[in-house]
């Protein structure tokens, strides 16, 4: 429970910091296309930071569903690393092959939300 709440808060902090860095530090260094990719990474990191906070709270409330929510949390964390991380690196390096990693993070996000749906439907 505590792990996912802390991970959610850390990722929310990082999303705000990376968003500000993109808006102020990269606006003159990246063209609009790559700045948009950076912003997509920031958005999805923030969405899933909030998801991690919810996972942490649900684990505390529904101990019986802990396994489903634990999977959801880990999948969200891996998704942030693969999805947002690959978009950040792609934006800075313009190495287009990194875009092939992004969908793996998206699949992790989808699976995480399915785990949360199942856990909530079954135990809440």
Q: What does this entry show, briefly?
A:
By secondary structure, the chain is mainly alpha-helical. The chain contains four helices and no strands.
Task: Describe the structure in your own words.
- This protein is an all-alpha fold and 124 residues long.
- It has one domain.
- 84% of the residues lie in helices and 0% in strands.
- The protein has helices at residues 2-25, 32-61, 66-93, 102-123.
- Helix 1 (2-25) packs antiparallel against helix 2 and helix 2 runs antiparallel to helix 3 (66-93).
- It is elongated, with a radius of gyration of 15 Å.
- 36% of the residues are buried.
**Distance between termini?**
17 Å
Low-confidence stretches: none
Question: What form results from the Cα inertia axes?
Answer: elongated
Helix/strand order, N-terminal first:
HHHH
Oligomeric state as shown = single chain
């Amino acid at each position: 429970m505590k792990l996912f709440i802390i991970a959610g808060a850390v990722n929310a902090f990082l999303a705000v910091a990376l968003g500000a860095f993109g808006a102020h530090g990269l606006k003159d260094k990246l063209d609009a296309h790559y700045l948009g990719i950076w912003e997509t990474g920031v958005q999805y990191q923030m969405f899933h930071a909030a998801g991690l906070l919810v996972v942490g709270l649900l684990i505390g409330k529904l101990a019986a569903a802990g396994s489903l929510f634990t999977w959801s949390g880990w999948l969200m964390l891996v998704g942030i690393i693969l999805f947002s991380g690959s978009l950040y690196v792609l934006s800075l390096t313009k190495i287009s092959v990194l875009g092939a990693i992004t969908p793996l993070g998206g699949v992790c996000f989808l699976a995480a939300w399915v785990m949360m749906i199942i856990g909530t439907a079954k135990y809440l």
